[in-house]
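BACKBONE STRUCTURE TOKENS:
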Amino acid sequence: MFRKAVCIVMAVFSLSTGLVEASTIKTIEGNSVVDVTPPYIEAESAIIVDISTGQQLYGKNIYEKHYPASITKIMTCMLALENLNMDDVITFSEEAVNIEMNSTAAYVVEGEEVSVKDCVYGLMVHSCNDFANGLAEAVSGDLNSFAELMTERAKKLGCISTNFVNAHGLDNDEHYTCAYDMALIGMYAYDSQPLYKDIISTKKYQVEPTNKCEETRYWNNGHEMILEGYYYYDKCIGGKTGYDVKAKSTLVTYANINGRTLICVMLKAPSKGQAMVDTKALFEYIEKNVTIEYYAELDKLYPKEEETEDVVAGVDDDVNEEEQNTSKAASEENTEKKGMPIILKVLLWLFVIVLVGFILLYIYARYVVYVRRKKKREMRKKRQLEHRRKMEERYKQTRFYNDEESR
């Protein structure tokens, strides 16, 4: 409960100080936006968010800290798309190819040259850990600097419980996130990078022979909800899978439900298959119970920034005076609306102050109770020692009198 309160304080702080770069998630009380009981899922944490508005539609332990495993690569992919050209070539270093034995990889060798495009597709389609390292070095020069960049970027996006120490997601006690944060990262990657949408929906990919490998590498996407078979879901756009011993199975999935693009995050599911079954069940639950009218209300509450900018956009130089006045009026109206966030920020800060005050009051009360108990223990111990001293003196006197009489 205390950790959740701290997470909420951090989220509110990010909102009120304007540090959030992407749309923040509008969270809800309880598990769902509708009164119908959602299906039971095996994953320890999960969340579904409407990407267009950032509205949470379902949640389970969304602030609970977990290891992300390979869904870490969503952040790696996003930073690579932002900073590298797809035609650039990466020459793999000794450190980049040094990965954990038996982990998923392309198994490139030192000195092998692979294009950035092949690396980002291999990263997401086959989950290549060595490609993650190669991209990290190409962006930041070394692996540690890239991990710092990942964490810094997560904070700018509004993440409240995320720390990255590598580009691939292999288990590390200091490498963690939560469902809320992964939804934020996944939303921003999807909205900001057009190529990302193609990458996550790619069913098969191949890397042609390189200067160190004579064979073509063929891979199927690890996210089976876009592949024909038992787990196939026709509304699934794509996503990213993850697994490691501590993390268990993790899954990020995008789907088109009732004309809306939704993102679902699963953390610490018992298996990849169960994570996909649970994801499909939640999507079907949302499709059945969240109405088009509800989405229409969301669009009114949270209009896209592009649409707002169009309303107040400047006019051409040759427009008539009436159009200029109309534009000016629209601009003034928009300026008045901008006053609302200031009030909201004040309210948010008041909320933070009150919440922190309650936390400090609770800590002080616990401290007072501790001090009183300590004093009582000391007094009891002192009385026991005094009683023991008196008993010893009485015993000595009695023994002295007995010795006198015997004489």
